[in-house]
Design goal:
Blueprint: E1 10-14, E2 21-25, E3 38-42, E4 59-62, H1 71-83, E5 92-96, H2 98-110, E6 117-121, H3 124-130, E7 138-140, E8 143-147, E9 155-157, H4 168-185, H5 187-203, H6 206-226, H7 241-250, H8 257-270, H9 278-288, H10 301-309, E10 318-325, E11 328-335, H11 338-356
Bound molecules: nicotinamide-adenine-dinucleotide.
Length: 358
């Protein structure tokens, strides 16, 4: 349990075919480590671990930054765990954002043919989204996320006190993934998400923050349980992401992932024959406005087109995007033609205009 809390505010199991795992919050490292554990922490945030509270559990660092999310980075984590004395009976405790999670998901599955591991996510994106689902994604050569596997942790410990060192925009980025998950889970979950978000903004209460995180993680867990290996319902969680990834690339990452997701959901809505309700759209505009504005003239539209074309979901004849149709997301196939690309650019431009004015 994290300091100051007497009981868990959420504690549930995610049933996965590989392994069922527990998600609990608030829960901190202090007092929860065991002999034989090794902590692997993002090298930039080692200050998040209170060394007095973990006794003699060794701490090793995982390399930070996208250029290090490589097979070599995985090898480094394995070597460092070995040097720290990790044995088969021990666990890796990963402390970091989505990047550390990706490295440790892969490293823990290879280390001595597999050791159990615990995840303590430290960024809003990893807390609100990536911690659930068990996927790793490793960059190979110049291709992002080309290799990966499924290897869920044994437990996920959510400790929101860890987020105090993050910039304010990071929360908006997490909420963008959160509102997307809540919409995919259905109208009741979306309404509850929006209600909790308003309450959190008004009160700043940690208890409400745990409530919103618990709501989103349970909603994502339900979807992952229905489609663990990403062939059906789970694909719908990619709502807005074809646009988002293309916008990140086409602005040379001046637009962060969370901002791009909010804008991507708006762009996907502009494509829809039956756009979703104003609740979702207004939420995405409000979140996009938490970031520095992105206008159409800073987007390299050639790069945007190329990135759209490269999305892994497309078939030989169709661009496949997740589109919000009224209250539910759906996979839509659009012909692979220059006209479609022009239409996708128009949708992206309309999302930018709607958020930041023309
Ligand atoms: N496997 C999956 O399911 C999945 C899903 C989504 C994203 N991802 C991957 O996750 C990565 C992005 O993850 P992210 O957005 O969490 O970023 P990140 O892990 O790269 O962290 C971003 C920055 O924040 C710093 N940081 C981390 N925690 C902090 C804290 N509490 N206080 C201050 N600084 C902190 C890090 O050192 C880093 O500089 C990408 O590589 C993406 O591909 C994986």
């Amino acid at each position: 349990m994290a300091a100051g809390w007497e009981r868990a505010l959420f504690d549930f199991e995610v049933r996965s075919s590989t392994r069922s795992y527990r998600v609990v919050g608030p829960m901190s490292l202090a007092g929860a480590t065991a002999t034989g554990d090794v902590i692997v922490i993002d090298s930039q945030v080692t200050y998040l671990v209170n060394t007095r509270a973990i006794g003699d559990v060794p701490v090793v660092t995982a390399p930070e930054g996208e250029p290090n999310k490589t097979l070599r980075g995985v090898e480094q984590v394995i070597l460092d765990c070995n040097a720290a004395g990790l044995k088969r009976g021990g666990r890796i405790i990963a402390v970091g954002g989505g990047l550390t999670q990706d490295l440790v998901t892969a490293a823990a599955s290879f280390y001595m043919r597999g050791v159990p591991w615990i995840l303590v996510p430290t960024t809003w994106l990893s807390i609100m989204d990536s911690c659930i689902g068990g996927k790793s994604a490793i960059n190979v050569g110049s291709v992002k996320n080309l290799a990966g596997n499924f290897n869920p942790p044994q437990e996920i410990w959510i400790d929101l006190s860890i987020t105090r060192t993050l910039p304010e925009t990071a929360r908006a980025g997490g909420l963008a993934e959160g509102v997307k998950i809540a919409y995919c889970a259905g109208p009741d979950t979306l309404q509850e998400f929006l209600r909790l978000w308003r309450e959190w903004d008004e009160s700043g209460s940690d208890e409400v923050a745990y409530a919103i995180v618990g709501l989103v993680l349970k909603a994502k867990a339900d979807i992952v349980e229905r489609d663990e290996f990403d062939t059906g319902d789970r694909l719908l969680l990619n709502l807005g992401h074809t646009f988002a990834h293309a916008l990140e690339v086409a602005t040379k990452y001046q637009v962060s992932h969370g901002q791009a997701v909010a804008l991507g959901v708006l762009a996907a809505s502009a494509l829809s024959p039956e756009p979703p309700g104003r609740d979702l759209l207004d939420a995405c505009v409000a979140l996009a406005q938490c970031f520095p504005s992105c206008t159409a003239d800073i987007v390299d539209w050639n790069l945007f087109e190329r990135a759209i074309q490269g999305d892994k979901k497309h078939t030989a004849t169709e661009y496949r995007l997740i589109v919000p149709i009224g209250p539910t997301p759906r996979i839509e196939g659009l012909p692979r033609t220059p006209d479609t690309l022009a239409r996708l650019q128009t949708c992206m431009t309309s999302a930018l205009n709607r958020s930041y004015g023309e």
